[in-house]
Amino acid sequence: MTDDTRGMLRATFPQLNADTLDGLVRAVRTVAYPAGTRLCTQGEEGRTFYILVQGHVGVFQRGERGTQQVDSLGPGQFFGGMSLLMDQPRNADVVASGDVQVIEIDREIFAQYIKSNPQIVVMLNQQLLQRVLSQEQRLLRALPGVPTEPDARQVFISYAREDQAFVYRLADELVQRGIAIWLDRQQIKPGSLWSEQIQAALDRSHMMVVVLSPQAVVSRNVADEWHYFLDEDKPIVPVLYELCRVPFQLRRIQHVAFAGADYEQALEQLVARLRDSGA
Ligand code: CMP
User: How far apart are CA 132 and CA 70, in angstroms?
Assistant: First the structure.
C-alpha cells in the first residue's frame, strides 16, 4: 500500500486516529480504470465507496428528460456514499471522464468504520447536502417562470464516439467553469428511445459545440445533429480537435482550433466564445 493511499484516506477522514487509519489502509484497494468506465449505475445496489486519486469523473442523472450531467468530480473528492448511507439504490451514474485511479472501500468495511466513527457520517452528510443544494439551485433555474440566468443555457456537444477521451475531458472542464452542457455518455442503444432523447436534448439546448476530426466528419449522427441546429438557426461553435476536411456548411463559422494549439489557450478561447453566445 502506498503513502499516497494513506495520505488520501487521512485527507478524506481526518477524524480517524493513526491506528484506525492503519487498519483502513490495509482494508482498501487502489484500482485503475480506463476512460468511459461506469463506476456507479443509477438504480443499482451500491457496494463500494470511492475516493478519486487521479483523473475526473462525471455524475449523471437519468430522468424522463434524458440524461443530465449534474456534477464533475476530481482528485481528492469521493462518491458512491449516498446509497451506502441511506441504504437506497445508487442515485446517479458515475463515469470516468479520462483514465482514473480510485481507492475502493467495500460496503461492509465502510459500514464498520462509520459505526465506530459517527463523526464521519456528519462530515459525509454535510458534503451530500452541499451537492444536493447546488443541484436544487440548478433545477430551480430551469423551471418555467423562474428567471433564467445566462449560465443556465445548455450547450449540446456533438462528437464521434472515437474522440470520447478528448470530449469527456473537455466537457468536464466546461462544467467546472459553470457552463451547462448536454453530452451523451451512454453507449448508443438501438431503438426509438435513444433518438427521442437526442431530439429532446437538441431542442432544449441553446447552442452546440461540434467536435471535428476525421472520424466526426464522416459520422452520420454528428452530421444529423449539426444540420438540425443549422436548420433551427441556433449557434454552433466548431471545435477542430484533429485536422480534417471541414464540411463546407461549417467553414463559414469561425472555429476554435485545438489541433496543433496549446490546449489551455484553446480552452479559454472556447469558453469565451460560448459565454459570448450566452452560455
Ligand atoms: P450513490 O447514490 O451511492 O451513487 C452515485 C453517486 O453519485 C452518489 O452516491 C453520490 O456520491 C454521487 N452523486 C449523486 N448525486 C450527486 C449530485 N447531485 N452531485 C454530486 N454527486 C452526486
Answer: 10
